[in-house]
């Protein structure tokens, strides 16, 4: 039997080859894609959705404690767990990334510092806002990134993409309106009377203003981080796993320093943040969320390898619905006409955006392909 036909000789060998290919794809970021059957595409999509939902729900659970104010140490523990997980995965041969290099670390440190600001502002906004509102407002980051690419990278915004942006803004307006209305009516009876009503409104608006402040800060920080990282990746040649390893490793000392300087490490405050009754479960949840971050990166690569980047972007758009629903199920976020409308419009905006990017990519590929065909046809 010829060597080239070995792959078809037995199902067992075929399975082994597939495992090797998956490991290689995971190690390099999974750029190469085989034509996968619909059945084989289901597990990575489901795993990606579960990982992203778990990450959001667990983070919301951790920061939702009444007395929780130690966000920096929370993020420090998560980053440490993430580094341990990716190092363990590398030793098992599941992924591959370059070894630590001081020169690379110096070049990448500003990006890691930006990531700290992204994660911190995201955690603070989750502390004050519901998961559906947080999920919807994250869409605004896409708009900032898109126009940042137009300014700095010569990107282009098509008519359909612009239409999706309008829908994203509309969903955010609906979400904010529904959120404020629900918060005010939650303070019934008769939304309290006289001065009591004024005090209630002030308290609600102040609380929401803090949440929306952190949310907009998070959108700006996320867009700056993504655009800066895109530039720096070209300089360093980092793969996805290199990026994750350096991001988390370099953020640990920054987060630890901020925690020591800015947070109260007194016995009383530690007891408030980590009550004895729920301490073990809370610490487990924090460690679990760090592992979930790695799971999202892993399942992202798996999803792209098993399907395509277009399918992955569609899954990302569709995934906003179960993520928003998880807040309503696990945290009792209000299920009202306003909240459901906001989630639905945001969901539709994500779909329109995914389709617009898919169409744009096809048009660019076709243009590139045509440019390559002409010289070949004239070749002597």
From TrEMBL:
Compartments in which it is found: Cytoplasmic vesicle membrane; Golgi apparatus membrane; Endoplasmic reticulum membrane
Keywords, comma-separated and alphabetical: Cytoplasmic vesicle, Endoplasmic reticulum, Golgi apparatus, Membrane, Sugar transport, Transmembrane, Transmembrane helix, Transport
Record field: transmembrane: 45-62, 68-87, 107-123, 129-147, 159-178, 210-229, 281-304, 337-356
Keyword Membrane: yes
Membrane topology, as annotated: Multi-pass membrane protein
InterPro entries assigned: EmrE-like (IPR037185), SCL35B1-4/HUT1 (IPR013657), TPT_transporter (IPR050186)
Pfam families assigned: UAA
Superkingdom of origin organism: Eukaryota
Subunit structure: Homooligomer.
Protein function: Involved in the import of GDP-mannose from the cytoplasm into the Golgi lumen.
Family affiliation: Belongs to the TPT transporter family. SLC35D subfamily.
NCBIfam families linked: nst
Protein name: GDP-mannose transporter
Record organism: Rhodofomes roseus
């Amino acid at each position: 039997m010829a060597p080239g036909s070995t792959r078809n000789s037995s199902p067992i060998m075929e399975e082994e080859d597939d495992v090797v290919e998956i490991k290689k794809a995971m190690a390099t970021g999974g750029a190469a894609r085989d034509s996968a059957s619909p059945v084989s595409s289901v597990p990575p999509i489901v795993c990606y959705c579960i990982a992203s939902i778990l990450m959001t729900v667990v983070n919301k659970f951790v920061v939702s404690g009444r007395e929780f104010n130690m966000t920096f140490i929370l993020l420090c523990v998560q980053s440490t767990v993430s580094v341990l997980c990716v190092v363990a995965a590398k030793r098992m041969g599941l992924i591959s990334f370059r070894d630590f290099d001081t020169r690379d670390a110096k070049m990448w440190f500003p990006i890691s510092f930006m990531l700290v600001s992204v994660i911190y502002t995201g955690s603070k906004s989750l502390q004050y806002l519901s998961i559906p509102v947080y999920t919807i407002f994250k869409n605004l980051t896409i708009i900032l990134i898109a126009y940042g690419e137009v300014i700095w990278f010569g990107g282009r915004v098509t008519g359909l993409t612009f239409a999706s942006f309008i829908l994203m803004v509309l969903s955010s307006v609906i979400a904010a309106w529904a959120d404020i209305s629900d918060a005010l009516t939650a303070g019934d009876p008769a939304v309290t009377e006289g001065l009591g009503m004024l005090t209630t409104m002030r308290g609600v608006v102040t609380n929401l203003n803090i949440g929306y402040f952190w949310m907009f800060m998070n959108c700006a920080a996320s867009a700056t981080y993504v655009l800066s990282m895109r530039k720096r990746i070209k300089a360093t040649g980092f793969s996805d796993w290199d990026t994750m390893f350096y991001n988390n490793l370099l953020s640990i000392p920054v987060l630890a320093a901020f925690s020591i300087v800015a947070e109260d490490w007194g016995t009383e405050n530690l007891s408030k943040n980590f009550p004895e009754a729920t301490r073990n479960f809370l610490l487990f949840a924090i460690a679990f969320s760090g592992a979930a971050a790695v799971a999202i990166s892993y399942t992202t690569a798996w999803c792209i390898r098993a399907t395509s980047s277009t399918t992955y972007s569609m899954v990302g758009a569709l995934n906003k619905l179960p993520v928003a629903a998880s807040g309503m199920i696990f945290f009792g976020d209000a299920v009202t006409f306003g909240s459901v409308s906001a989630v639905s419009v945001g969901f539709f905006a994500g779909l329109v955006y995914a389709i617009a990017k898919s169409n744009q990519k096809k048009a660019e590929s076709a243009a590139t392909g045509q440019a390559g065909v002409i010289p070949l046809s004239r070749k002597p």
